[in-house]
Description:
It is built from two helices and 18 strands.
Amino acid sequence: MFNTTLIVTLLVSAAAVQVPATPTFKPAFAGDCSVSIVLAGQRMGDVVQVTIDHGALPVRHVTDDAQRAVDVPTGSPLQAGETLRLLVNGSDVAAAMLPVAASSARPAGTKPSGVCTPPKPLVAPGESFLASAYFGWAYDQFAPDNVGGYPPGTATAKHNRALFGVDFAYRVFGSDDTPVRLWFAGETLHGVRSADIDCTAEENKPPVCTPQPGITYARAVLENQSSVEAYVAPRLEFARVQNGSSTPALLYLTGRLGFIAMAGAPRVFKNHHVGLGLLANGGAFTGSYFEAGVGMNELLAASKFNRLKIDGFLTFPLTRVPLIRDNANFFIQMFIDNDLGKGADSIQTFVGFDVDVRKFFGGE
């Protein structure tokens, strides 16, 4: 004879054992500015996070045991083909992976979800002048010694230079809304090669060994500089690219006219090129660009326009870094100066920080 009471007790106990449920995404489409997650038994305090191909979105906490959904803003519009992934309490929920569908697949009569933060443009509305100062390092390991001012037999294997310089750009034609704009830009670059400074001392190191943004560092570089470069670079922006996306860009033509001077050299060396480029005009990498063209460099070869010039520049703000926040951008740049024949080639890498000097004069 079966014990009915025991069976009922076992059944009730089995029903009380909760099988972990799997949360899922609601369908997501290109242009959406938020992601919706359908919860499945998550409890108050659980941490939910969405990742996309290019990074993680802000975490969200379940606020109630009865909560059924969580909406996570994306900041910028989703793009077709991106993949959403879900983590709950730090663990990946493999079954919740979701590709973002094309906007054409969105059900008729529905609008994109959420509200995106408009991409921050390179120039604020109505602004026509940019000015910044930068400091950092140049690495010349893949460039001839004379590029960094290193004479033959230099007693150092570290071919790098401490840098300080300024950039400016002024819009002389066009406005925020016109399809064509002309800018007049300029740059100076002052360098102190590693052979000229001693950073091995434990005390009283030169300021260029421990760079801090400010007058002291700039003065130290200017007083000890072994190389200086200066350029003017008119830039004609003539087309917008991906204007409705999270990373709009501008297509431009440019000419770069300037010189390189070395300590002890009998004269300055001309360094020019003309090229075509693409400039990020919004989003997390505003101000980044890729440029390619042809030119000449008297420091490396004869005065002929037979050299390939490639300039890649990536910059982004450090808003999540304490004490820096929006006061400086980090940058990394690679410049390739390639002889199309059998002459000398140069590859230089620059890293550092860029400070908007307009803020010191009441600018935004």
